[in-house]
Write a structure and sequence with these properties.
The structure holds 2 protein chains of 2 kinds. By secondary structure, chain A is mainly alpha-helical. Chain A has helices spanning 2-31, 51-57, 59-64, 74-78, 82-87, 98-105, 119-122, 154-162, 164-169, 202-207, 222-226, 249-252, 259-262, 299-302, and strands at 219-220, 257-258, 315-316. Chain A has a two-stranded antiparallel sheet with strand order 1-3. Chain B is mainly β. Chain B is 10% helix and 53% strand. Chain B has a 26-stranded antiparallel beta barrel, surrounded by 4 helices. A two-stranded antiparallel sheet of chain B has the order 10-11. The radius of gyration of chain B is 31 Å and the shape is globular. At the A-B interface, helix 1, helix 9, strand 1, helix 11 and strand 2 of A face strand 3, strand 4, strand 7, strand 8 and strand 9 of B. Strand 2 of chain A pairs parallel with strand 24 of chain B.
Chain lengths: 324, 758
């Protein structure tokens, strides 16, 4: 019964969301202007002169660098050029903004729909910071001149020019193979979208490649269910499996460890029979539990990886203790 | 498959060239482009285990040299670019292939004809596991397991003791021959073929009100290789002999996975009123490798599990995922509004685990095995100009995740049949999350922007705790280390300045606080700062020089996670502290138009300290036995990574181009116990997990243009990995020298030269 009730609740949620969206779209249609209004605004008083006239002076753009087919008409983006051709003044020609690009490129990808509200856009970047509309490189991308990652794809080389802290992480002992060219920054990040509102939850992106860690599991590990980045740093880490800290630190910063199963009752342990009874000198009312006579320190727990025994940290179909 | 696809791409390239030469319409300005670079790479590897077949830091090079390359290891098509260009030098048809080495390559084929775009690609990448061997113990102490040694622990004394730990003196003794004597590589070969077909009516001169673009895509990926598994066998189910010392096991599990994805996206601007996209996506994941059980492992000295009671080790469910997304955007000169909704369902499909199939639990007994996750999200996002050069940006996203309750029915049924397999820890049965933010920004003058904002993250988890029926076992709320609610708020200030034409500064500072946290290592209070500055000295020197400096700081703590059931008379929390800071400085100089020099130094430090908590008994026994929590000590952890990179690129005499770059990375990771506080857990962690790595890379290339159509090149790469914390007697230090030679030819230029001379 509860399941039916929850399913009905989910359906109502969905219906509600669609209703809100349709309402928002209807409001938007009434209030705002149609799409065509965002075409490049003309230069007042200027008349078209044609691309050939532009090439008289701008030979390096029209000749040395090449132009994509939709970019071959200079005045389509820069506006009519008669005044500029006559005066050669910078003020008599316009340089396109991101809005001009999007007047054609919104259909280019669905994530372009978020450019205007995306983090790159809000940070003040414009299309030409990454794209050279006069180039025939893939996606008209600019090329980095200072990359020290020879195997990295050209897109990622451009990304790490600004995101240098991320670039540094690709030199860490373990990292996703971006520096090696096995994947690209855009394999995970779309620079045009607003990552804060990406569809799905935090793990859905990781699940596109790591399906074998995502379940659904019979026995689950809640942090793995919520967000892979609680334990992993996808850009790079000092330890294996891109863990944010080494084991067992990463585990015992959350988990308590019981004396019952983790004190190495069989065989010798380090600090055998060590008695620890002192109070914490600097923290009032904090007192550790002394080891009983014959009890051993939990050294075995510290001296190996937790995952040596609890190997199924992402989830399991078999074992409630996530051991396999 | 790789061999056939590569061969296929090669034939397509040849076909493009031949057809292009024969059929290119010179009058239309179409012409053929075909450039190829044939390269050879010689690997000289200097590792101590060169003959051992063991995966090391530079495993892939050794493997290429020894075996596994598609072409002979010394020869490869480093780059291929062929196609038909239009008069404006855009491509009508293009084939391109890059190869970094014989195992890793990308190939693309694209067709751009009017409103039709076809992109096909083939990718191949092999990842090899880096096996860390942290030092397990130190001299004079009782041998304890090496972290990786557990994987190959066999509990058997070899005839000739070669073990790193003396055989028999430790239940975790490691036999080095088990590790190094066989070909125990851990790797994954990923190969994928996919493509996208996009149709844009506008490109055919038609403007359709309900269709701007229709995109369909499909991809097939395979992953084959081996994965490390490590586990402990508990009595009595998996380890019938009951010898705990023989319970620690490892396995090299075979992977044979495939992922098939197909989908379509429709982009439209209905009546020109707004933009919208609608996507549907299907993904099928399958694992074809056989299920591993104790009996199939054949572990020596451990009795096989009784029939029907054996468990599957690391069973990976086959899944199907369906995703649908709808998004709309309305944009005017200044106002942007975006909203969307998405729904996905991930469902177990295909084979069942042995436990699910035992006695036909899932097939015949009526227990539902409809194991699935439903995910729904919706968002609104807007940027709205207000009077007075002020802009309002706001966003809100709601996410709902639901785990089907079928699992509960299955567990109850399984327990009644098997007498085991109860739920131990809480499930997140439902998860509701709302994230959002609001920012006011203003640009008082050109080149200056300030923003003040607020963002929040609210999560409500419907935690399903184990039932105490039929046995009072399972973690209950009173001893759980996860809380159902968390709410985090953050206020931030950001700025972007352009000063004196050559100086740019940007940054963000924020303070966050959480009234409720979910985990002990969440942050209840934090301060964050991120700064970036660019200074150009172009007008002061004859050489344009620019300096970029970035830095970041995080300082946070958690005092909001009370320890359950702590010692009587003292209410306490598990105090957690986290500090991270780092910077990188980059200097770039351009002495001449064709000469670029750069250097970067970066440092990143991460520190943590937290209460290490012990309990008398396992928390899932709460109810049977009183559980008490104790803070044992306060371990401290620190990692410090420094990296220096420099390089130059020069084109001299228009024919000779040279590139040089080098990088050195120092990694230092360690732990310690707070002095005189509790047991020295931090010190013990340090013994087993200290990391001191040095990674050096040097790369140099020379390319000489002999003629319009022919160039030659040579290169050398030096790579070295030094592990400062060695596992005696094993050394993991490894050096790879790669010597490259390459020959490039532009077929079209050569053809033109030959035709001209005739």
């Amino acid at each position: 019964m509860r399941k039916i009730g929850r399913a009905r609740g989910s359906a109502l949620r969905l219906q509600g969301l669609f209703f809100v969206l349709i309402l928002a779209a209807a409001c938007a249609s009434v209030v705002w202007e149609p799409r065509g209004s965002r075409r490049t605004t003309p230069v007042p008083g200027a008349t078209p002169v044609g691309t050939e006239e532009c090439r008289v002076c701008h030979e390096e753009i029209a000749g040395h660098e090449t132009m994509a087919s939709y970019h071959s008409n200079c005045e389509a983006c820069h506006g009519s050029g008669s005044l500029h051709a006559e005066s050669e003044a910078v003020g008599d020609i316009r340089n396109p903004s991101s809005g001009d690009c999007l007047s054609c490129h919104i259909p280019g990808r669905d994530t372009h729909l978020q450019w205007g509200v995306g983090q790159h856009s809000q940070a003040g970047l414009i299309c030409s910071d990454c794209h050279n509309p006069h180039s025939t490189q893939r996606q008209n991308l600019r090329l980095s001149q200072t990359s020290s990652f020879p195997d990295m794809d050209t897109t990622s080389q451009l990304c790490v020019e600004c995101h240098s802290d991320v670039g540094s992480r690709f030199r860490y002992p373990t990292h996703h193979p971006v520096a090696e060219g096995g994947m690209s920054c855009v394999s995970c990040h779309d620079p045009h979208e607003d990552a804060r509102v990406r569809p799905g939850d935090q793990n859905q992106l990781c699940a596109n490649c790591h399906q074998d860690t995502i379940g659904p599991w019979i026995y689950e590990h809640p942090p793995a269910t919520e967000d892979c980045q609680i334990c992993h740093d996808p850009h790079g880490s000092v330890t294996n499996n891109m863990l944010v800290t080494v084991q067992p630190v990463i585990c015992i910063s959350c988990h308590s460890v019981n004396d019952q199963f983790h004190q190495l009752a069989i065989g010798p342990g380090i600090l055998d029979n060590q008695q620890i009874t002192q109070d914490f000198p600097t923290i009032p009312n904090q007192r550790i539990k002394p080891f009983a006579a014959g009890q051993k320190n939990q050294a075995g727990t510290y001296l190996r990886r937790c995952t040596d025994c609890h190997g199924a940290v992402h989830g399991s179909y078999t074992d409630e203790h996530l051991r396999h | 498959m790789a061999r056939s696809v590569l061969a296929g791409l090669g034939w397509v390239a040849l076909l493009v060239f031949v057809v292009g030469v024969a059929g290119a319409n010179e009058e239309d300005g179409h012409h053929v482009v075909a450039e190829a670079t044939l390269g050879s790479q010689f690997y000289v590897i200097d590792p101590p285990y060169d003959t051992s077949n063991v995966a090391g830091f530079f495993e892939q090079y050794r493997y290429i040299r020894d075996q596994g390359a598609t072409l002979p290891y010394f020869l490869d098509l480093v780059h291929l670019n062929a196609g038909i260009q239009r008069a404006d030098q855009t491509y009508l048809l293009r084939l391109e292939r890059w190869t970094r080495n014989a195992l890793n390559s990308n190939g693309y084929l694209s067709l751009d004809w009017q409103g039709l775009d076809l992109d096909l690609d083939y990718r191949r990448y092999r990842s090899d596991s880096l096996r860390f061997f942290p030092k397990g113990t130190w001299g004079g102490e009782t041998p304890v397991p090496d972290a990786y040694g557990v994987q190959y622990h066999s509990d058997l004394c070899p005839p000739t003791p070669t073990s790193i730990s003396p055989c028999g003196s430790s239940p975790f003794g490691l036999e080095s021959s088990d590790v190094f004597g066989a070909n125990n590589r851990i790797f994954v070969n990923r190969q994928s073929v996919g493509g996208e077909l996009a149709l844009r009516p506008e490109g055919f001169g038609r403007n359709l009100p309900l269709l701007d673009e229709l995109r369909t895509y499909a991809r097939y990926e395979t992953r084959q290789g081996y994965r490390q598994d490590s586990f402990v066998l508990a009595t009595p189910l998996e380890n019938a002999s009951g010898n705990l010392a023989q319970g620690f096991r490892g396995n090299r599990r075979k992977l044979d996975q495939s992922v098939t994805t197909a989908g379509a996206t429709l982009v439209a601007s209905p009546l020109g009123l707004f933009e919208t996209s609608l996507s549907f996506d299907f993904q099928e994941f399958r694992e074809q490798a056989p299920v591993v059980t104790l009996n199939t492992l054949g572990v020596p000295n451990v009795s096989p599990a009784p029939p029907g009671l054996e468990r599957a080790f690391f069973f990976v469910p086959d899944t199907n995922r369906f995703t649908g997304t709808l998004q709309i955007t309305k944009q005017t000169e200044a106002v942007v509004f975006n909203a969307g909704v998405s729904a996905a369902r991930l469902k177990q499909s295909g084979r069942f685990s042995p436990l699910q199939s035992y006695y036909g639990l899932c097939e015949n007994r009526g227990a539902s095995c409809d194991n699935a996750i439903t995910l729904v999200s919706a968002h609104v996002d807007a940027s709205i100009p207000l009077p007075g050069q002020i802009n309002l940006a706001t966003w809100l996203k709601y996410t709902y995740r639901d785990s089907d309750e079928a699992r509960q029915a299955f567990l109850a049924d399984a327990f009644s049949v098997l007498g085991s397999g109860f739920q131990e820890s809480p499930y997140i049965q439902e998860r509701n999350e709302a994230r959002g933010g609001l920012e006011f920004s203003m640009r008082p003058v050109r080149g200056m922007q300030f923003g003040l904002g607020y963002r929040f993250d609210w999560v409500n988890r419907d935690l399903l705790f184990p039932s105490n029926d039929p046995l009072p076992l399972g973690i209950q709320p009173s001893v759980a280390l996860i809380k159902p609610k968390s709410f985090d708020s953050e206020v931030y200030f950001r700025f972007r300045l352009r000063l004196l034409r050559s100086l740019r500064l940007s940054g963000e500072m924020s303070g966050s606080w959480a009234s409720e946290v979910a985990y002990p290592n969440d942050l209840s209070e934090a301060f964050r700062m991120r700064l970036r500055g660019n200074y150009s000295l172009a007008h002061r020197f004859s050489w344009p020089v620019s300096i970029a400096l970035t830095g970041h700081v995080l300082d946070g703590k958690n005092d909001a996670f009370p320890l359950p059931k702590s010692m009587p008379g003292a209410g306490r929390t598990n105090h957690f502290e986290k500090t991270e800071w780092g910077y990188d400085l980059t200097v770039t100089a351009v002495p001449k138009e064709a000469w670029v020099m750069f250097a970067t130094f970066s440092q990143s430090v991460a520190e943590q300290s937290f209460g290490y908590v012990r309990t008398d008994f396992a928390r899932y026994l709460d109810g049977l036995i009183p559980i008490n929590f104790y803070i044992d000590s306060f371990p401290e952890y620190k990692s410090n990574v420094k990296s220096l990179t420099f390089g130059t690129s020069v084109t001299a005499w228009q024919r000779l181009r040279s590139d040089f770059s080098a990088s050195l990375t120092w990694v230092d990771v360690g732990s310690r116990g707070a002095p005189d506080v509790g047991s020295n857990v931090g010190g013990l962690i340090n013994q087993a997990n200290r990391i001191q790595d040095r990674i050096f890379t040097l790369d140099t290339d020379l390319e000489y243009q002999i003629s319009e159509s022919v160039s030659v090149g040579a290169g050398y790469r030096f790579q070295q990995f030094i592990n400062g914390v060695q596992l005696d007697p094993i050394e993991l230090n490894e050096t790879v020298h790669t010597i490259r030679a390459q020959f490039s030819i532009d077929f079209a230029a050569a053809y033109a030269a030959i035709a001209g001379s005739n």
